[in-house]
Amino acid sequence: MATDWHEKARTLDIPSQMMINGELVYAASGKTFASVSPVDGRHLADVACGDVEDVDRAVAAARLAFEDGRWSARAPAERKLVLRRFADLLRTHRDELALLETLDMGKPIADSTSIDTRAVANCFDWYGEAIDKIYDEIAPTAPGTVAMVTKEPLGVVAAVVPWNFPMVMAAWKVAPALATGNSVILKPAEQSPLTAIRLGELALEAGIPPGVFNVVTGDGPEVGRALGLHMDVDGLFFTGSTQVGKYFMMYSAQSNLKRLGLELGGKSPNIILSSYRDTVHAATTSAHSAFFNQGEMCTCPSRLIVERSIHAQVVETLVEIAKSYAPGDPLDPATSMGAMVDERHTGRVLQFVEHAAEDGATLATGGRRARQQTGGCYIEPTIFDNASNDMRIAQEEIFGPLLTVIPVDSVDEAVKIANESCYGLASAVWTDDLSIAHKVSKGIRAGLVYVNCYDCDDLTTPFGGFKESGIGRDKSLHAIDKYVELKTTWMNVACRD
Asked: Which of 83, 132, 266, 434 has minimal Cβ neighbours within 10 Å of its Cβ?
């Protein structure tokens, strides 16, 4: 029997308090902020609006938990069992978490259930399973000495995450941080705080001790800045805009030089060459990737660079595919594109539509608000053709369903344009020529290069970028390095007469 998501939404318990030291609490000031659904403008909850005092409370709880060893001193095999139990709870509460995510930030319920909740549970499972399989080292020293290289948890870790994949981005940071024995403070985006609070509750139920996993909700400039400047936070790991990432770098320098991990913006080039025979497949995949999650992705292939000989056919296919992404009711499982996160962001994306027209790009389809009668935040899938790489729509991260098509005359020109960006997160090339694939993938300055595919994903591979797309990597065993300190211990074991 099909799930009636509207009926579930009517009876859904909406969390609204912070989680500090194992307790759901209101902000010390008593302040709240309204959580409004972009689906239809409904008021979801008045959520606790934390400030510096709440950050201090959370950091103190996390520090005490770390120092007394209630989690940090547990054997990795014990932490594994708890994290895997947490993953099982996330699966049990899949529908609840998916519904909270969709109501809070507008993505289709089909994606929340089949992609987001599954990925979150798998992430905690994966890092839980991995942590007792990672070995320390013994250096090859001279006889009579032993040098041990050990990994120790960083300490108190803050994770500041965005609103486009609230649970997934939290899991990518919280799971390896907890697996390595740290105490964590999670700060969700103010646009999407609800699932973070629920994660805190379920973590406690799974057996993660009080104080080890805390959730502080509130405005980014207030709570995020307080975490960034806090002298007792050992590391801060952020996903979001490049500008805010630069603020965190300043906060680290102004405070205790806390370790940073920054997964920042992107303006991903996607190159379709005439040497790829199935042009329709390349264009179709590119459109799906550009409009997935309403285009609210740092890896969104928003710069489509196409050889001129196949340009017309590619654009024709893109426009046809865009029709299947007409915004729909996010609570309808048949919907493929939902709502933008809020009114403010909707207005920002529509400003880029105006910029594109002013700069001389050709509107091929879309460009308008949709479903205005619902009270929600919807934009048509939009394609601008005949753009140049110096236009604002080709240089700035839009975070919406807006695809820019740039025609080129050669492979070398395509690579040159691909690299003419301050970002270097994701990229792609479509070609049947192995030599060209190798040349282009080596030539593009980006942390991710897809060849004849886009947005392939697995926890076993690192995620992150070059240039102003950030510092460090999420996912894979490489992510664990961010959350540990390396300690070298020398021992003189030579016998003395």
From this structure: 434
